[in-house]
Amino acid sequence: MSYLSEFGDDFKLGFNLADYPFLVDQSWHNDQSPRFEWPRRALWINHFDCNEYPRFEVYHLDTDENGETHIDDERCYLSTDNISELTAYLNDYKAGR
Hints:
Layout: H1 3-7, E1 24-25, E2 35-38, E3 41-45, E4 56-63, E5 69-80, H2 83-94
Antiparallel strand pairs: 1-2, 2-3, 3-4, 4-5
C-alpha cells in the first residue's frame, strides 16, 4: 500500500518524499494517517486539521523475537507541528548525524 492509495492525492505530507529515499511507505488502510519507516524509526504524519495529535511524530521501532516490528510509543524522538523541525531531523539522519 502507499499513502497516496490509502489517503488520496489531497493528503499533503508537507515535504518532498523523494528528498528522503530512506523513508519506506508503510501506510495501511487501518491507519489513521500515513506512516513511514526507516531503521529503528517510524514517522506518523497526521492530517493538517487534526487537533488531537501533533502533525509529525517520530517513534522508536522495536523488532520482536519473530522479526516483526512494533512502534514503541514510550520512546518518541520528535513530536511537532513544525515542518522545519521535521525536515531538520530527517536531514540530520540523512547526513549520518
